[in-house]
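User: Predict Esterase's structure from this.
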Amino acid sequence: MAIHRLEVSNNSYTADNFVTLTAYSSHLKGRGDISIYQEATSNKNVPIIVLLHGVYGSHWVWSQLGGVHKVYQQLRSSGLNEFVLVMPSDGAHAEGSGYLPLKNADYEAWIVDDVISAVIQTQPMCSSSSNIYITGLSMGGYGALCLGAKHPTIFSGISAHSSITELDDFNHFVDEHTLKPLKKTTDKYKGDVFKTLIANKKTLPPLRFDCGKDDVLFSANTALAKKLVDENVPHTFDIFAGTHCWEYWHEHVAKTMIFFAQLESKTHTQLK
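Assistant:
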């Protein structure tokens, strides 16, 4: 266990169904924050969706800029099965960590080890038997694609929105102070999404991603999709109208939830 200490919010003072955690992590060599949205339930082993944020943001942006819980509530009212929404910070390196292992801190291990452990430790409806899915937007999409591919025994499905696909894509958003350490990552794939997906092709969880036609990352995403087709890597790539903005992600995160719900249905069918 890499978590040395956990602080858990008091539900008497938080917004309905929200929990905030602060964990002191040996992987980060410091503190990291996690927002959780979970509706009251007596069920056990409820599946988890990990939502990774983009540059500039932190654990709160998926809910307070993206309204992800509102999307979830609407889908639940239409019959979507239960999930616990887990929204961690990226570890707070400069303008964005890329969720990469760096020399000063392991931002990948923070997500795949500490965040998941903290959720299972504190949320009674979740357990080591809960299926875990990963998604994200922009830098978070990049993290979801890489982490989901590298850790198929942890993640049961991958979805990504408007994703950065390689380190050079970060130039659209961040300064050299942020990017220089990322280029020195200890990741053996050097932070390249395609190389990561290809290297883990045989164990890749079900994968989908999307991008808006007017997004600055549209050409990078279409190029990634073409290379995956050429290499016969199973995936779904959806193209929608829109730009690199919260309106786009608020609308299309529903596609992610529905995709993960479909995977959950297949899991339960296989277990019967």
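The two ends are 34 Å apart (CA to CA).
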